[in-house]
Automatic annotation (TrEMBL):
<dbReference type="InterPro" id="IPR036420">
    <property type="entry name" value="BRCT_dom_sf"/>
</dbReference>
<feature type="binding site">
    <location>
        <position position="312"/>
    </location>
    <ligand>
        <name>NAD(+)</name>
    </ligand>
</feature>
<dbReference type="GO" id="GO:0003677">
    <property type="term" value="F:DNA binding"/>
</dbReference>
<keyword id="KW-0460">Magnesium</keyword>
<dbReference type="InterPro" id="IPR013839">
    <property type="entry name" value="DNAligase_adenylation"/>
</dbReference>
<dbReference type="Pfam" id="PF01653">
    <property type="entry name" value="DNA_ligase_aden"/>
</dbReference>
<dbReference type="InterPro" id="IPR018239">
    <property type="entry name" value="DNA_ligase_AS"/>
</dbReference>
<feature type="binding site">
    <location>
        <begin position="83"/>
        <end position="84"/>
    </location>
    <ligand>
        <name>NAD(+)</name>
    </ligand>
</feature>
<dbReference type="InterPro" id="IPR013840">
    <property type="entry name" value="DNAligase_N"/>
</dbReference>
<feature type="binding site">
    <location>
        <position position="431"/>
    </location>
    <ligand>
        <name>Zn(2+)</name>
    </ligand>
</feature>
<protein>
    <recommendedName>
        <fullName>DNA ligase</fullName>
        <ecNumber>6.5.1.2</ecNumber>
    </recommendedName>
</protein>
<dbReference type="InterPro" id="IPR033136">
    <property type="entry name" value="DNA_ligase_CS"/>
</dbReference>
<feature type="binding site">
    <location>
        <position position="410"/>
    </location>
    <ligand>
        <name>Zn(2+)</name>
    </ligand>
</feature>
<keyword id="KW-0520">NAD</keyword>
<dbReference type="InterPro" id="IPR001357">
    <property type="entry name" value="BRCT_dom"/>
</dbReference>
<dbReference type="GO" id="GO:0006260">
    <property type="term" value="P:DNA replication"/>
</dbReference>
<dbReference type="GO" id="GO:0003911">
    <property type="term" value="F:DNA ligase (NAD+) activity"/>
</dbReference>
Length: 671
């Protein structure tokens, strides 16, 4: 393929993929399968790698991330992002309406109502129809440039097509984590033994500020836009919204134009419970004067506009009887207390159970069986108990609830690690929920992806003593599976085929599947790339583990202890014998020169222009060696920002040469 042909193909693929992205994310329809779409995207990625000079500004490959941002540039807002005044009552809204009427001196006016989304405010600037900047609200005057992360959000247009597009304009919106994505994220964290995220809004805010846009892309952020600024020719907010819709921006279809304050009240009452059906969290309604000219006349106070106000819904809380507390045991052995409640209707659903989180929470609430407790339903799957209704506590209420000291499933004495709130059952090989949980983790899509298995089948296999660990799956025979309820010849063949196919799963997925505590999919990928095979990883010291990307002290300690457990060692050997991959398929970087020959390096800290993996590849490509720890045999400590002081002290004590990123680049140039 010639350069000219490549350029033409890149332009055509970019347009085609962007077209299908718009259909899917803005119009909720498709014309091609996911597989066909992925093939188009993969082809474009490959062409852009070969011919980077032809990559388009609106290339859809930016959606998958890949950019590292060490520090976010501070950007001053052209139009300040002011906060709104809040109210919780219709009386105060009526007062707001009177102030608007007075400010407009009796002139007719109307309102535009929108739901207030619980996310992260973002300013999107477009120049010549192309997304130029995405900036956080910050302090309202200036925010952080997070453009690379914003580009990963599928329904934020990278290029605008349509009529009457101004040379430059700004769009305001709200970035959020959809409820289902947030719940799945928490499920995954729970699965690897991490604490759940508290709420979707804070998680979205943290995601927007991640340094690695590839990780941002994996979080599947979403965005609703609600405001258009600049010389656009529109005379009302409603007209601006129509323009945004015509340019294929993602506008929530929950807005309404209201003739007067009474219609505003109707809108508020309508959405008070209906909003709970939406895919994201909402906490109120934004009411704006519709006319842009009238908005300008009403003006601003020092902190907020006079033409708009936010009505906040009160958190829905209800009192119901606490009938008891049960305890759930997870895959990692964490024991979670759950309040068993008198069923009550709350926020659109009947609530029978609510999270009590841990022993500290039970002690804080001073719970008694028979108490009436307040229950709220926020952004979590399970509602939570927030307090005790002391006015309803009866004198004959039973004794305070004390957290159990033995596992509710196997009777083993519980332990509590220093610095952790949860209690754990240490009986990892004999506690049924832990065993079944590990197998369920092992077969999931992001791990071994054995889709012919499920919780019900695993439960049957466990009860028949056929499977007590993941390695047992690879010993199953046809006659074993025929014992399971609902399994005939075809379903048996499918299951055995799925198990056999899983042997082709790459090492990083296998490493995630074996279920080391705190090792999620991303950390497993980093460890697989860094150590290359299971033996080097298993034999690594704690100090060597801490050197690996994304690995902190907690993860390093967990990995170190996992591979020194005899039971885990036996399980790894059985999985190895079954034919699973325990070596990375990632190719060693092709050699470019011998300029670093016979030189050894340790890489530590954060760098301005490179990821640590990139530096590692450069060293290997140019003949150098990577060591995992500082010793007298080391030639160079390549030091970035935030490097641990102990490493520097040790290097200085041993006389090891410490070099910067700039020094390293000079070495590569032979200087």
């Amino acid at each position: 393929m010639t350069a000219a042909q490549a350029q033409k193909e890149i332009i055509a693929l970019t347009e085609k993929i962007n077209y299908h992205n718009t259909l899917y994310y803005q119009q909720n329809r498709t014309e091609i399968s996911d597989y066909e779409f992925d093939q188009l995207l993969e082809k474009l990625i490959q062409l852009e790698k070969e011919y980077p000079q032809f990559k388009q500004q609106d290339s859809p490959t930016q959606r998958v991330g890949g950019t590292i941002t060490k520090e976010f540039e501070t950007v001053y807002h052209k139009y300040p992002m002011l906060s709104l005044s809040n109210t919780y009552s219709e009386e105060e809204l009526a007062d707001f309406d009177k102030r608007v009427a007075k400010g407009l001196e009796g002139e007719p006016y109307e309102y535009f109502c929108e739901l207030k989304f619980d996310g992260v405010s973002i300013s999107l600037t477009y120049e010549n129809g192309v997304l130029a900047r995405g900036v956080t609200r910050g302090d309202g005057v200036r925010g952080d440039n997070v453009t690379n992360n914003v580009k990963t959000i599928r329904n934020v247009p990278l290029r605008i097509t349509g009529k009457n597009i101004p040379p430059a304009f700004e769009v305001r919106g709200e970035i959020f984590l959809p409820k289902n994505v947030f719940n799945q994220l928490n499920k995954e964290r729970e699965d690897i033994g991490e604490e759940r995220y508290a709420n979707a809004r804070n998680t979205a805010a943290g995601t927007v500020k991640m340094q690695d846009s590839t990780e941002v892309a994996k979080r599947k952020l979403d965005c609703y836009v609600y405001s258009l600024l600049g010389d656009t020719g529109s005379s009302s907010h409603a007209q601006s919204i129509q323009m945004l819709e015509s340019w294929n921006f993602n506008v929530s279809q929950t807005y309404k134009k209201c003739k007067n304050i009474n219609e505003v009240f109707e809108y508020i009452r309508h959405w008070e419970t209906k909003r709970l059906e939406l895919p994201l969290e909402t906490d109120g309604v934004v009411i704006k004067v519709n006319s842009l000219e009238q908005q300008e006349r009403l003006g601003f106070t020092a902190k907020s506009p006079r033409f708009a106000i936010a009505y906040k819904y009160k958190a829905q809380s209800i009192s119901t009887r606490l009938n008891g507390v049960t305890y759930q045991v997870g895959r990692t052995g964490a024991v979670t207390p759950v309040a068993e409640l008198q069923p009550v209707f709350l926020a659109g659903t009947t609530v029978k159970r609510a999270s009590l989180h841990n022993a500290n929470e039970i002690e804080r609430l001073q719970l008694h069986i028979g108490d009436y407790v307040f229950v709220e339903k926020g952004g979590e799957i399970i509602p939570k108990v927030t307090g005790v209704d002391h006015e309803k506590r009866k004198s004959n209420t039973t004794q305070p609830i004390t957290y159990i000291d033995k596992c509710p499933e196997c009777g083993t004495k519980l332990i509590r690690y220093e610095g952790e709130a949860a209690h754990y059952c240490p009986n990892i090989t004999g506690c049924a929920p832990q065993i079944k949980g590990r197998i369920e983790h092992f077969i999931q899509r992001k791990a071994m992806d054995i889709d012919s298995l499920g919780e019900r089948t695993i439960d049957q296999l466990y009860k028949l003593d056929l499977v007590k660990s993941p390695a047992d799956l690879y010993d199953l025979k046809r006659e074993d599976i025929l014992k399971l309820e609902g399994f005939k010849d075809k379903s048996v063949t499918n299951l055995l085929g799925g198990i056999e196919q899983s042997k082709n799963t790459p090492f990083e997925s296998v490493l995630f599947a074996i279920g080391i505590r705190y090792v999620g999919r991303t950390v497993a990928e980093k460890l697989a790339r860094y150590f290359r095979n299971i033996d080097k990883l298993a034999n690594a010291s704690y100090e060597e583990l801490v050197q690996a990307p994304e690995v902190g002290e907690k993860i390093a300690q967990s990995v170190f202890e996992f591979f020194r457990n005899p039971e885990n060692q036996r399980e790894i050997q059985r999985l190895r014998k079954a034919g699973l991959k325990f070596e990375s398929d990632l190719k060693e970087p092709e050699k470019e020169s011998d300029i670093l020959a016979n030189k050894s390096f340790v890489i530590s800290g954060v760098f301005e222009r490179y990821e640590r993996e990139d530096l590692q590849d450069l060293i290997l490509k140019n003949g150098g060696r990577i060591l995992s720890g500082v010793s007298g045999k080391l030639d160079y400590l390549l030091a970035g920002d935030n490097m641990g002081p102990s490493k520097r002290e040790k290097a200085e004590k041993l006389g090891v040469t410490i070099i910067s990123e700039a020094d390293f680049e000079k070495m590569l140039k032979g200087q």
